[in-house]
Specification:
Length: about 400
Amino acid sequence: MMASLLLGLSSLCLLVWSLRQRAAILRLRELEKIRLAEGLRSLAAAGSDRDSLLNAFPDAFLIADAQGSILHCNEAASALFGPAPLAGRPALEILRDARLAAPYLECRNSGNPASARVLLPAEAAPARTRDPATGESVWLVDAAPVPQSGGPPHIRLLLRDLSSEHQLEQIRKDFVANASHELRTPITLVGGYLETFLETPELLDDRPAVLRFLGIMRKHTERIACIIEDMLLISRIESSDASALRMETFTLAECVQDIIDRLEPLIRTRQAAVHIALHDPDLTLEGDRFYWTQIFFNLIENALKQNLKPGLQVTVRSEAAPGALCLEVIDNGIGIPAADLPFIFKRFYRGGKLHAQNEVPGTGLGLSIVKRAVEAHGGTITCQSESGIRTAFQITLRGAAEVVPAGI
Ligand code: ADP
């Protein structure tokens, strides 16, 4: 009896103990679960920290596993190669072009970092920035192994868009080449005349011929001086940021009238007329007056230069649009052929067959100076032309900063 009582008691104790043990185990498991959840939460937080960090980079960033499948990518990579999700897809399928894939493959095969600067033609360029003229894009592709504990390394891929730097470099090269070419022609001509005089001194006795040659030489040296002056002006505009502009408030009509006064001899020779027709005669601009003088001088002088026939009418007008001011220089002259229009703002571009006969003086830099100066003031310039009817250069200044209505 006693034995069965003890047995019963001990079984009860065992049951209580085992129940306690179970409760303890359950508590432990519960704790483990909580710890695991916390761990996962902090892991996720670390992951999202990593994501935010990678998304902060403008470069496309991808990680591929040893089999070549994309494990991870940042937003820039999705924007570049999307819209379909990239994770899980083969890196080679995403990179598509053999030139982009080359550093990745080299890194995968050699186990060493590899990088390349890749120029892609329009049809192969990924979506983002391209040269608007050629459609080309330039990329830095950089691949490096990422060691994994106990397994083959992953591969990190970085793609940096170098198209803008490439375009700038191209513009600089073109400018140097064009400038050298434009300067070489008159310098060679002047040199040629001087050499002729030195080699055949008896020519100096022919006074009328000497005077004629000196006149030609003077014309060429004037052209060299003009080119150098325009080049200096362009480089001054390009090297100065908006803060370098000497901002002041000035009356537009006064500024244009000064230009008309300076151009008076040419206006008279051409039997032309220049009118000021502003929507507000007291209109003031906030800007660098030196550059605005250059802008209107070049536009009005161009109209006068290009039109040899009498009766030309040039009008400087303005119009206020909501949030913007529109300034126009309009003429009724020969106009600009449609084929020339896309190029007139390019440096050294000179349109029309008149120029081949050297009838119209100029450097081909005038309109590029105008465009740079307008852009330095936050504006844009466009041109429409209908031969013999209307050629209009239209400058748009948006935002209150540029537009100061009269009386304020
Ligand atoms: P430039 O006057 O020295 O030739 P610009 O850059 O000022 O150079 O002008 C580029 C070209 O645009 C000119 O050569 C000319 O063909 C054309 N052009 C500019 N303004 C006018 C105009 N008002 N009428 C006709 N052609 C113009």
